[in-house]
Amino acid sequence: MLAEIEVTLCVNGAELTVTCEPRTLLADVLRESLGLTGTHLGCEQGVCGSCTVLCDARSVRSCLMLAAQARGHEITTIEGIADRNTLHPLQRAFSETHGLQCGFCTPGLILTSAEYLRENPVPERESMKRHLSGNLCRCTGYVKIFEAVELAAALIADSAPGTMAEPQR
Amino acid sequence: MTATASRWVGDSPRRKEDARLVTGAGRYVADIQLPGSVEVAFVRSQVAHAKIHAVEVTQALGAPGVVAVVTAGDIEDAVAPFTRFIDQEHAPPALESAIRPRILPCPMEVLAGDRVRYVGQAIAAVVAENRYLAEDAAELVDVDFTELPAAVEVETAREPGAPQLHDAIENNVQATFAAKVGDPDTAFAEAHDIFRVRMRTQRLSASPMETRGVLASYDPAEDVITVWSSTQVPYMVRTRVAEQLGLAEQQVRVIAPDVGGGFGPKVQVYPEEVLLAHLARTLGRPVRWIEDRREHLLGTAHSRDQVHLVDVAADEHGVITAIRDHFLIDCGAYNPFSITCAYNTAAHLRSLYKIPNYAIRGDCVLTNKTFNVPYRGAGRPEGAFVMDRIIFEVARRSGLDAADVLRRNLIPLDQMPCPRGMLYRDGTEIVYDCGDFEAALTKVLDAVGYQEYRAQRSPPPRPGVRTGIGLGCYIEGTGIGPFESGTVKLDSLGRITVYSGSTPIGQSHETTFSQVVADEFGISPDQVIFRAGDTALQPHGCGSFASRSAVNAGSAILIAARRLKEKVKRIAAEMLEASPEDLEVAGGRVLVKGDPELSFSLAQIYREAIPGPAARLPRECEPGTAETSYFVPPTVTWGHGIVAAVVEVDIETGVVNLGQLVIAHDCGRMINPQVVQGQIDGGLMQGVGAALYEDIVYTDQGQPLTTTLMDYLLPTSAEVPRIDQIHLETPSDRNPLGVKGVGEAGIIAPPAAITNAVLDALREFDVHIDELPITPHSLVAQIAEATAGKPDRYGVTNGARSS
Amino acid sequence: MKPGQLEYHAPDTVQDAVDLLASYDGDGMVIAGGQSLMPLLNMRLASPRGLIDLNGIGELDYYLVGPGRLIVGALCRHRDIELDPEVRHHWGAVADAVPAIGHVAIRNRGTVVGSICHADPAAEWPALTVLLAATITARGPHGSRDVPAEQFFDSHYVTALRPAEVVTEVRFALPLERAGSGFVEVARRHGDFALVSVGAVIELDERGLVARARLVAGGVAPHPVRLTEAEEVLVGRVPDDAAAAMAGDAGSAAVEPPGDIHAPGAYRRNLVGTLVRRALSAAVHRISEGSNAR
Q1: Minimal Cα distance from B681: which residue of A?
Q2: From C267, which residue of chain B is nearest by alpha-carbon distance?
Q3: Residues B626, B497 contacting (CB under 8 angstroms)
Q4: Which residues pair with B121 in a beta bridge?
Q5: Would you give the DSSP letter of residue A104?
Q6: How many CB atoms lie within 10 A of CB A155?
Q7: Strand B528-532 to strand B496-500: parallel, antiparallel, or no bridges (unpaired)?
Q8: B4 has pLDDT over 90
Q9: Is the dihedral angle over the CA atoms B485, B489, B491, B496 positive or is it negative?
Q10: What is the rounded CA–CA span in Å between residue B387 and residue B346?
């Protein structure tokens, strides 16, 4: 067949090596080689954001990265944002506020929201809307997603020791 | 209807779907991995209209990893084209005589043979070990074709001499009908004011975030093809696949796994589904095709695209006495849904208004573009845009306030129930069953501060910015048949399992229908096992579209649940030597009211009902603890709503900033209010997209220009306004749940409301907007025309400013 | 949509990258952020035989910012510039423009230099390089050379780079005293490519009159355009609304923008006038605030 390369990736804290063609997208390696199908492909044009993963804690579109380019970076997918059998506050909050319907865009949105909250522990609606603008959702109209992020911030603040942040709703 | 204590219906418990979806454990068709799978890439037409002479595949066959390359010639003996469509050959008899539709057959090939009719139409399928290799080989397929002139403009496609798409369809008019109410001619003769408008709603792509996809696998031992498809209608897919491959429906199993949104275009059976089922059988390996976004924007059906030429007659008080409308739908190259959208437009156009005299004629015209099917709203948004723009124009012409004109034309409460003088698509007479429209209007106007806004009318908030408020409304026939199925049964552990023929696509069926059953059995929704979207679960089912699942599936499930509960009580009564009336079912047990010690678990009931000589069943009871119901609705039940939009327009750039949407809507009883809110939010934002951003554009050669999501503009989170929802609840008496459909409610009114708001904001410039989407450049051009020759605020008069 | 077959290389040094690129003799491309190139590869609108990944070249991963100084290495991401407070304090036009580039995920990975080399006429960075009199350093098989921004952009997606050249650094310039800059654009949605963008740099003399002005428009031609007629209108005048209006009219009159599905040419032309006024207003506002600050 065609020439293949070995790519060693760090995904969700685990080091894994796959063999693939050099042109293989990171999204396809995650989904097909590693069985991490929580990262979804909605456009392969870098627009919809359904394929969002965290690369060294920054949101990136995994359809716009070759798997080979992920070498030496820490990739976090939706499967890796919380330990097994626990839920990240964002995962709980998205369900609580009905911030998802079909769920296809949700993993990408949760990861981008996680980045937003890391940079903005006290969320503000306008800056939040701009931060999430690269993740398209067709079902929810986004309103309950904003509520989910705000609720998650409150959950995180409540669980952090010695915090004085006011929960915002 | 027997009252059941409502602990869960009306509440908003956490969704059962979420546990898997928020953790990335959902299973969409692209996530299903079968060992030994091969993958398909299609060779698709790059021109709008052409004769195909030959398809050369030898080079492609020799490419690495290629398993097969399939063209029309390879399948012609085994795969029949699509010849049967929704509403195609005939309408219900009553409707047939009322509107005399003429509908011509318009078969659709699975793979294009000697002719292609739109860019994106599938010509050949390349099957390879993975999609990368399949695409490599697809580039090597050579199609020898001669381009034909394309019919691209809906108005000229009907004219003699225009390129004809199908030999048997003269002038490309595939379907036509006309309907009339009252006496429009006299009303026009006596009118105080008459005017004409031309309105166009643009071509849209529903654009769910998950594109389509098909995975097919054949089991030779069972002789069954299993097809996983991202579809809203697995039973329809089963029927067509079986029919076109010459099989029994029972030899085809169709499963809709988790589906990432549908909104209408997935209510259709596509060539890829039929072809992949065939290939699974002939290749002996599972076959997968996952649509990419470019394919989706070309090959998954579009919608809307209507042009209306309307004459309006009004009296001196701004009351519309008659409307005459001739409209065309640009259907694209085929029309599988016949007059569905067209007649919906006709039936809903008069909306909440009296308009006693009405004549409408609709023509479905074929052009060399992607074919259309209904998209959320299904003809209603088009009609609503026309109607509420007309209300605004009546106000503009008469100097009255738009909200006043709207109110004057509303059907008042004392005229409910209100017969409309025409039939619905299902052949029954349209009678609006319930709703206080004037109250809804008052609530919306109060919520948006309309009176204060009108009273102020003074300097703009900032120089160069104008604000406006606009209104739009809708009526929606929901819960149409033909039927839906529901099965409720016990399993050996005594758990309640529910099967439905509906197909969840994000609208939370697993939770809402579990709530319905939970109330019946006195358990929590988490204890109900719910399965749907799989033709193996139920012999018959319909699917999810047309805001019908809560009404039809919900009712079928409710009725089946009640039957099972009654049977369970009768069996327990036999065992307890009591009367069924003395028993109740709760918490997984059947107990004697007031004496909970006397009870049986549902697991025990299950065992008692197993057939055999030891079964302790009442005389008239069959063994087993499963009940199935098929709910056939009497006709549709009517939801309605009114939307107000508040906008700010930058008059120098033409950019519209949507500040607020308020909706007052009635969807009857709400099973899960949070789910209803989510449906409305999502529908409203799709309406915003239609008003301000979305447009499928073709060149005059039929070349699509919007083939990426950078060209086809979906609203992002940054475009979301403040949204306020007011829920009105008039229960329906047309189904045992008292619900109405709400899936499409949000999308219908925003385009009219937003357009009217922009026109209100720009009233000093006498701007006209009769086409969607509203574009900054059209506003700037009109503002410039209105201000040409007048000194601007800098004291500079510059004619060159006009564009 | 999957990329076509390619050979992939991840060199450690600029020299290796240049040598590899040269070895493909025109059939190779470099990739850094990939936010513009990957969509083209996925859609097979670009099918290079060789792809040279610059992300492993540590010597390119830097940027320096301060008053009057902005130097950007080839691996500097948009997001780093966006979040740096020094940019907000001293480089107003840049602070205005960068948040409008696509969306966060694109800015996380996309590079300043990559956007400049991609040379989309509606992109922010090409317009900024012309506005801020940037110098672009390119390294090729025959060594390094500096190219002024105004000579760098030939046409849509076509630059003055020679075969096997790789841009390693871009240096921007901004006057320090009595100067301010601003950048405004109109797009269909937040994050979309600009329909029209205008950047302005204004320098005043001791009397408060315009000593020097730079005005650049994007999205109106195959490359960013200096609005020299508009600049000349401003020199020697008080930068008030009337002067801005005249500059705006001169700017509009000087361009003949093409149209596309998002906006016709006439609208873009008209928009130039409006955006010149607004960019000037932003720039002048920064002067009165005492620096090139928000």
Answers
A1: A141
A2: B777
A3: no
A4: none
A5: S
A6: 17
A7: parallel
A8: no
A9: positive
A10: 11
Between CA B599 and CA B608 the distance in angstroms is: 14
B474-511 confidence digits (pLDDT tens): 999 988 888 999 999 999 999 999 999 999 999 999 99
User: What's B717's DSSP letter?
Assistant: G
Partner A contacted by C43 (CB < 8 A):
yes
pLDDT one-digit tens code per residue, B557-615: 999 999 999 999 999 998 888 899 999 999 889 999 988 788 899 999 999 999 988 87
The encoded tokens of residue B785 equal: 């025309």
- Of A57, A131, A159, A110, the closest CA to residue B18 belongs to A110
Q: Amino acid letter at B625?
A: T
Both tokens of B257, joined, read 């796994």
For C103, the closest chain A residue by CA position comes to A134
Beta bridge partners of B656: B649
How far, in whole angstroms, is CA B351 from its chain's centroid? 18
Q: Model confidence over C166-225: pLDDT tens digits?
A: 999 999 999 888 999 999 999 999 999 999 999 999 999 999 999 999 999 999 999 999
> How many Cβ atoms sit within 10 Å of the Cβ of residue B144?
11
Res. B435 pLDDT band, cuts 50 70 90: confident
| CB atoms C105 and A112 under 8 Å | yes
- Amino acid identity, residue A92? R
Q: Tell me, what DSSP letter sits at residue A31?
A: I
Token pair belonging to B421 = 């003088």
A 86-145 residues with CB below 8 A of B?
A: 87, 91, 94-96, 98, 100-107, 110, 128-130, 132-145
CA distance B777 to chain C (A): 5
Q: Does residue B13 register a pLDDT over 90?
A: yes
DSSP B583: E
Three-state helix/strand/coil letters over C251-271: HHHCCCCCCECCECHHHHHHH
Bond into B286 cis (ω within 30): no
Amino acid residing at B106: C
Task: Write down the mean pLDDT value for chain C.
Answer: 96
Distance of CA B285 to the CA centre of its chain: 34
List chains adjacent to chain A, taking adjacency as at least 3 C-beta pairs closer than 8 Å: B, C
Q: Contact, C120 vs C193, CB < 8 A?
A: yes
Rg of chain B over Cα atoms, rounded to whole angstroms, equals 28
Average pLDDT, chain B: 94
Q: Which residue has the tokens 């070895």?
A: C23
ipTM for the whole complex:
0.95
Paired strand residues for A61: A52
Backbone angles phi, psi at A113, to 5 degrees: -65, -40
Condensed to tens digits (0 to 9), the pLDDT of residues B81-132 reads 999 887 666 688 999 999 999 999 999 999 999 999 999 999 999 999 999 9
Residue whose pair of structure tokens reads 């007031």 in the numeric block: B594
Range list of H helices, chain A: 26-28, 89-96, 106-119, 125-131, 143-159
- The answer to whether the CB atoms of C105 and A133 lie below 8 A apart is no
A chain contacts of residue C2, beta-carbon cutoff 8 Å: 23, 25, 28, 44
| Alpha-carbon distances of B460 from B159, B756, B757, C169, rounded to whole Å | 49, 18, 15, 47
Count of helix runs (H) and strand runs (E) in chain C: 11, 14
List, in order, residues 6 or more apart from C275 with CB less than 8 Å away. C184, C185, C186, C196, C197, C198, C217, C248
What does the block give as tokens for A132? 């999430």
Q: B171 by DSSP, 3-state: which?
A: helix
Task: Identify the burial level of C214 via C-beta atoms within 10 angstroms of its C-beta, where 0-12 means exposed, 13-18 middle and 19 or more buried.
Answer: buried
Q: What is the amino acid identity at position B243?
A: E
Q: What's this model's pTM, rounded to 2 decimal places?
A: 0.96
Q: Is A146 on the interface with B (CB under 8 A)?
A: yes
Find out whether A53 and A135 touch, Cβ atoms under 8 Å: no
